[in-house]
Specification:
Number of strands: 19
Distance between the termini: 61 Å
Pfam families: AA_kinase (PF00696), NAT (PF04768)
Shape: elongated
Protein name: N-acetylglutamate synthase, mitochondrial-like isoform X1
Structural class: alpha/beta
Largest sheet: 8 strands, mixed
InterPro entries: AceGlu_kinase-like_sf, ArgB_GNAT, Asp/Glu/Uridylate_kinase, Vertebrate-like_GNAT_dom
Strand order of the largest sheet: 3-6-2-1-9-11-12-10
GO molecular function: acetylglutamate kinase activity; L-glutamate N-acetyltransferase activity
Keywords: Transferase
Length: about 500
């Protein structure tokens, strides 16, 4: 266990319970902060990533290490680019991510060092951050006023520790101590435990717009100026809703949520996976966290996500789809149809045309009706899979698998594929040899065959003769789309769609 600071600092923090005047309190905080900085400097808390502002060489080393950690998959690169674009177009005072640092992390200096370095990297690259930390206060356990007071003193010390580690990593940070009236609260029962009623964003926005990372402790203030301890997860959720963050990260020392078999639950789609998630047995604290996070996702912007993960993997979680955490995100429900009767054909046509970049032949949907087996379609018409049952073949055919450009890179394709795979034990399909998605298809197929024009994929087929039959049928199947040279107005039509 790592120990931060001297006994004198801890004694000074404990004495704050006797200080009534807020101005005097702030002066004592600043004095303690200077002592903590001296301690940090004497213990050589160096950044794991180089300081980007030091030199071009440092910038290159920083970037190289970042790419080594998160990988260079093109799909993920598009995802990073989208995130950076969202940030660059947002308000200068709006954080890209709200990051909650669990209290346990402060007991592990190496994790805290790595976390601070990663947060500093994001800050240097204009990814605005807001850090929240504090105590985890269980609902089912009574804490005396003295215990809550001691907890607040510990949280104050941890605020200073967090600020020092961030600044040692090259990121200017600003502590938001209790008494700042940021977390307006009401007390619960007769004790000094409370819950957030309103978030005063002014101080947070000022910190962010001035180029600092706000470090906010989960200590609230009531209308009568009483300080109350607030559960850190609850405080983080309320802050994230108030600032409408694109990302919310709940960081711990262990990683994401686990299923009954002990495996990490990688993704939770809200509302589709909500019932199954809440039925899983877990501790009362985990159940409380699940409820809170699911409610938070519903109150964030459409493309936002919430992640529960280890402090060691923050960059991987932010910029890839293979982290060690659990990602919660809003997704459209996948609806299942056995006919086109209830499908908006015009909207479906636009989806397929835009995602393929080609114009469907006029009779496509009319011909589809006689051989259609199942259509999987997202509620907002951003993803579709069309399965047909072709005459003379016992294996269903995947005729179309299409994701809108706006949803690509967000896991929608995996969610749609899981629906298909769940209902169809065997399937085959074809793709143009030049299709950039083929790498994704290869990972999900069990067999394939290619010529100069097509690649035919399949899974669930062990009979070699049957696979020959399916390949022969697939390569002879008429095209669904017009070729550009067959349709002079093709570019104009796709643009108008």
């Amino acid at each position: 266990m790592a120990h931060y600071g001297t006994s004198a600092v801890r004694a000074s923090v404990a004495s704050l319970s006797h200080v009534k005047d807020v101005g005097t309190q702030c002066m004592q905080y600043l004095g303690q902060l200077r002592q903590m900085r001296q301690w940090t400097n004497s213990h050589s808390v160096a950044p794991a990533f180089g300081n980007l502002h030091s030199s071009n060489g440092g910038r290159n080393r920083d970037l190289k290490r970042f790419l080594e950690e998160v990988g260079t998959n093109p799909k993920e690169a598009r995802y990073w680019l989208k995130q950076f674009q969202l940030v660059s177009g947002s308000s200068p005072s709006r954080p890209f991510a709200v990051v909650q640092v669990d209290q346990e992390i402060f007991q592990h200096s190496q994790q805290l060092k790595a976390l601070s370095s990663n947060l500093a990297f994001l800050h240097r690259n204009d990814m605005k951050l807001l850090v929240v930390h504090g105590a985890n206060l269980p609902d089912d356990k009574y804490l005396s006023d003295q215990e809550l007071q001691n907890s607040r003193h510990q949280v104050t010390t941890e605020t200073m520790i967090m600020v020092n580690f961030l600044e040692a990593s090259g990121a200017p940070a600003h502590p938001i101590f209790s008494g700042s009236n940021v977390l307006r609260a009401e007390s619960i029962g007769r004790g000094t435990k409370g819950k957030v009623t309103c978030v005063n964003k002014e101080a947070l926005e000022w910190c962010i717009s001035s180029g600092h990372i706000p470090v906010l402790s989960s200590i609230g203030e009531t209308s009568s100026s009483q300080l109350v301890s607030i559960d850190a997860v609850h405080a983080t959720a309320e802050v994230a809703k108030a600032v409408q963050a694109m990302k919310v990260l709940f960081l711990n020392t262990t990683g994401g949520l686990r299923d009954r078999g002990g495996r990490i639950i990688e993704e939770v789609h809200i509302p589709a996976d909500l019932d199954a998630l809440m039925k899983q047995s877990c501790s009362s604290q985990d159940h409380k966290t699940k409820e809170l996070v699911c409610g938070l996702v519903a109150d964030l912007p459409p493309l936002s996500s919430v992640v529960i993960t280890s402090a060691k993997t923050i960059l991987t979680e932010l910029f890839t789809h293979h982290g060690s955490g659990t990602m919660f995100k809003k997704t459209e429900r996948i609806l299942k149809y056995s006919s086109l009767k209830d499908v908006d054909i015009d909207r479906l046509k636009k989806l397929v045309t835009r995602s393929f970049g080609r114009v469907l032949k006029e009779n496509y949907f009319k011909e589809l009706e006689g051989r259609l087996h199942t259509v999987y379609l997202s509620e907002g018409y951003s993803a579709v899979a069309v399965i047909t049952q072709e005459a003379g073949l016992n294996v269903p055919y995947l005729d179309k698998f299409s994701i809108s450009l706006q949803r690509q890179g967000e896991g929608t394709s995996d969610m749609l594929w899981n629906c298909v795979r769940r209902d169809f034990p065997s399937l085959f399909w074809r793709s143009r040899i030049s299709n950039k998605v083929n790498a994704w298809y290869f990972k999900r197929s069990e067999g394939s065959w290619s010529n100069s024009k097509w690649t035919v994929f399949w899974y669930g087929i062990s009979n070699q003769q049957l696979s020959y039959t399916l390949v022969e049928w697939a390569v002879k199947k008429p095209k669904s789309f017009h070729e550009p040279d067959e349709y002079e107005e093709w570019p104009a039509i796709t643009e108008s769609l």
